[in-house]
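User: structure tokens for this one?
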Amino acid sequence: MTIRVVLPSPLRDLARVSGEVVLSVSAPVTQRRLIDALEAAYPMLRGTVRDPVTGRRRALVRFYACSEDHSNDEPDALLPESVAQGKEPYLVVGAIAGG
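Assistant:
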């Protein structure tokens, strides 16, 4: 399956890409498989989106698909069908913290 991924500007710069990233992900399309494919295609992104030891999402990274927050979904939960079919992008968003 071909998945469209939108990365935040700092990660696009690190990966040396512009615009959306297109990845091939085997079914079933889950967050884990998508991030595995992203890190395989762009090894310089390893450890930026998820912790390499625990596999958990980095605290200041959020995941969105179909206008819904999927940041706290289990890594093996299925992504929405429209994302799996490449109709909608999967968004990796850098969260803003401050006080």
